[in-house]
């Protein structure tokens, strides 16, 4: 029997790449939508994917990408314009009469969240609820394991994991485990239509436990240091992360400190839906450490880490308010972080279909 063709947007990204490769291994024809051909898209092409360059801002590109596809994964980038892209994608999906769409949402998405990306992720789910003939499934992971890898280099070179996490808890999922859930739903969407799934790692960890796991993976002692958010902003600037991403992440770190990512975790979603027990955090770190030359304690790697440290100290922390004004981001007078939102707290209670 001929298998349905599946469109993966942001196919060269963290979950898009892993989802594409998973589906290809299962024998599904995959159409990989990417911004432009590069080494990552070449890897997908070699694995058997059909590569379609295009923009999620262009209705013509989306229509062309969906032509002949039966299912799709919508993964918007962390950039301004999520709702606009979602609406264009939804209109294209309706025209193409897709039989199922998986949406990558976010654990703290809420209509009154101070991060515009979270509000627009919440609105994206509403847009698809309003399209009765395009069934959808939402996957809303929390704080990815991948996010901690930003401190892998200083952890390896200086034995320090400095992040503004407070005493928040998390069960960090790997990109591969998130993708495993997405791929399983796309492979057989019927039992999952209308549901929300939150993939997590196997264990709830405190920041010191995360630092200890990084240390074991690196074969050295690593200490957690609760850092000011302003220092995070300086480090992110030194790493050339965009001001918009820094502004949005600053809110998510406040959520983290309030333990929003610890609520309702861990879940059994990866094992139950993805068919495999989730990766432990230490195993995830080992994969990244093996792939990174800066995770090895060499003279060159130490020098690179010292250079990044100096760049961080000299960098000017961006002003989130200035970023919002410059990008014309709407600001709510009644904005509430996840743990302060009664509406959000009600939606994440057990038995409400969130996991």
3D structure, described in words:
The longest helix has 16 residues, at 299-314. The protein is α/β, with parallel strands linked by helices and 355 residues long. The protein has a seven-stranded parallel sheet with strand order 3-2-1-4-5-6-8, with helices on both faces. It has helices spanning 14-25, 39-47, 59-66, 82-96, 116-129, 152-158, 175-187, 207-218, 229-238, 243-257, 269-274, 281-291, 299-314, 320-326, 342-347, and strands at residues 6-8, 30-34, 50-53, 71-74, 100-104, 136-139, 160-163, 196-197, 223-226. The mean pLDDT is 94. Helix content is 45%, strand content 10%. The radius of gyration is 20 Å and the shape is globular. The protein folds into two domains: 6-144 and 174-197, NAD(P)-binding Rossmann-like Domain (Rossmann fold); 145-171 and 201-262 and 280-331, UDP-galactose 4-epimerase, domain 1 (Alpha-Beta Complex). It is built from 15 helices and nine strands. Strand 2, helix 2 (39-47) and strand 3 form a beta-alpha-beta unit.
Assembly classification:
single chain
Distance between the termini: 32 Å
Report the biggest beta sheet as strand number plus sense, adding barrel if it closes. 7 strands, parallel
β-strand number: 9
SS element count, helices: 15
Strand residues, percent: 5-15%
Helix content: 40-55%
The Cα radius of gyration reads 20 Å
Order of helices and strands: EHEHEHEHEHEHEHEHEHHHHHHH
Number of domains: 2
Structural class: alpha/beta
Specify the CATH homologous superfamily of the largest domain.
NAD(P)-binding Rossmann-like Domain
- The CATH topology annotation of the largest domain reads as Rossmann fold
Enumerate the spans where pLDDT stays under 50 for 5 or more consecutive residues: none
- CATH class of the largest domain reads Alpha Beta
Shape: globular
């Amino acid at each position: 029997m001929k298998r349905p063709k599946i469109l993966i947007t942001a196919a060269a990204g963290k979950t898009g790449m892993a989802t594409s490769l998973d589906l290809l291994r299962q024998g599904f024809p995959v159409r990989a939508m990417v911004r432009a051909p590069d080494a990552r898209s070449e890897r997908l092409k070699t694995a058997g994917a059909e590569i379609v360059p295009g923009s999620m801002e262009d209705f013509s590109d989306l229509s062309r990408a969906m032509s002949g596809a039966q299912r799709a994964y919508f993964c918007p980038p962390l950039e301004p314009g999520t709702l606009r892209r979602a609406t264009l994608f939804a209109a294209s999906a309706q025209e193409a009469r897709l039989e199922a769409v998986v949406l990558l949402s976010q654990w703290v998405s809420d209509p009154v969240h101070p991060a515009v990306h979270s509000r627009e992720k919440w609105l994206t789910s509403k847009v698809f609820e309003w399209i009765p003939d395009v069934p959808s499934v939402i996957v809303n992971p929390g704080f990815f394991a991948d996010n901690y890898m930003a401190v892998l280099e200083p952890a390896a070179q200086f034995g320090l994991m400095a992040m503004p996490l407070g005493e928040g808890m998390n069960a960090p999922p790997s990109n591969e485990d998130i993708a495993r859930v997405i791929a399983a739903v796309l492979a057989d969407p019927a039992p999952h239509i209308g549901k929300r799934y939150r993939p997590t790692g196997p264990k709830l960890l405190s920041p010191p436990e995360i630092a200890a796991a990084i240390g074991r993976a690196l074969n050295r002692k690593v200490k957690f240091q609760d850092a000011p958010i302003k220092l995070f902003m300086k480090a992110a600037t030194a790493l050339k992360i965009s001001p918009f991403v820094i502004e949005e992440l600053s809110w998510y770190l406040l959520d983290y400190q309030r333990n929003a990512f610890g609520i309702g975790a861990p879940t059994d979603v990866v094992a139950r839906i993805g068919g495999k027990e989730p990766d432990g955090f230490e195993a995830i770190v080992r994969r990244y450490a093996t792939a990174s030359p800066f995770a090895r304690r060499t003279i060159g790697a130490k020098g690179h880490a010292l250079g990044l440290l100096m760049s961080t100290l000299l960098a000017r922390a961006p002003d989130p308010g200035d970023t919002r004004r410059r990008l014309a981001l709407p600001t709510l007078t009644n904005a509430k972080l996840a743990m302060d939102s009664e509406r959000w707290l009600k939606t994440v209670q057990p038995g409400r279909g969130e996991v």
